[in-house]
Design a protein that fits this description.
With about 230 residues, the protein is an all-alpha fold. The chain has one domain. The chain is about 80% helix and about 0% strand. It contains 10 helices and no strands. Helix 8 runs antiparallel to helix 10. The radius of gyration is 19 Å and the shape is globular. The termini are far apart. The relative contact order is 0.11.
Length: about 230
């Protein structure tokens, strides 16, 4: 009897920890390490520690269970800081974006501490996440606007920045739309235990990390091409 119970316990842990989210994040991290570990550009090399933090936060959140909001409240600081940093580097290639990024960071800081004061650290900062989601959508659209205005010819299917921004735009735009219609989506039950939003977010995560993984492969390919 003990052996089947032990096997059932292992299966239970695997089903909980190895989800669509954690698998897509882990694969993206592995691809980032392979493609970017020796890259000379900090903009891309910083993806590795960020994705590592993302994986740790995801596994820790699953391990803790329902009382895990403090984990994601802590993680959102890294999410906002990392994404603002990357957009600053990408946008500054075309224009001085320091003021725009500073405004975005300021809004994040004000909203973050406001929510902490209102409901404490153990309830998720949903308003703050919505604010940074809107910011990242606007950053993405601004980046594409600058890209269209730029006179340099770029093969988009091989452009690392294009695909990284594409994944970011798609993810945060869809998340913002889901937040706006949260009540309606939450009321649609796909399975007895899971509502529609649950599956939408899993699909969005897969799309995000697929685009990012492809952007890392493009960066590696471009680096090899420039060196040969």
């Amino acid at each position: 009897m003990p052996k089947p119970l032990r096997l059932n316990h292992i299966c239970y842990l695997m089903l909980n920890f190895f989800t669509a989210n954690t698998i897509s994040e882990a694969i993206c991290l592995i691809i980032a390490i392979i493609c970017l570990i020796s890259d000379h550009d900090l903009t891309w090399r910083i993806m590795i520690p960020y994705l590592l933090i993302t994986c740790v936060a995801e596994f820790l959140g699953i391990y803790i269970g329902r009382q895990n909001h403090w984990v994601y409240n802590l993680f959102i600081i890294f999410e906002a800081g990392f994404t603002n940093f990357i957009f600053a580097r990408l946008l500054n290639k075309y224009t001085n974006s320091n003021f725009l990024i500073a405004v975005g960071i300021s809004l994040f800081v004000i909203s973050y501490f406001y929510e902490i004061l209102i409901h404490g650290f153990f309830k998720y900062n949903n308003i703050t996440f919505t604010i940074i989601s809107v910011e990242f959508v606007l950053y993405s659209l601004y980046y594409y606007y600058l890209l269209l205005k730029d006179g340099d010819y770029i093969v988009l299917k091989y452009s690392p920045a294009f695909w990284w921004v594409a994944g970011t735009l798609f993810f945060y735009f869809a998340v913002t739309a889901c937040n706006l219609f949260d009540d309606e989506l939450y009321s649609v039950m796909v399975t007895p235990k899971h509502h529609l939003t649950y599956f939408i977010f899993k699909i969005l995560n897969i799309i995000l990390y697929s685009c990012w993984s492809y952007s890392f492969i493009c960066k590696k390919w471009l680096t090899k091409t420039s060196q040969s």
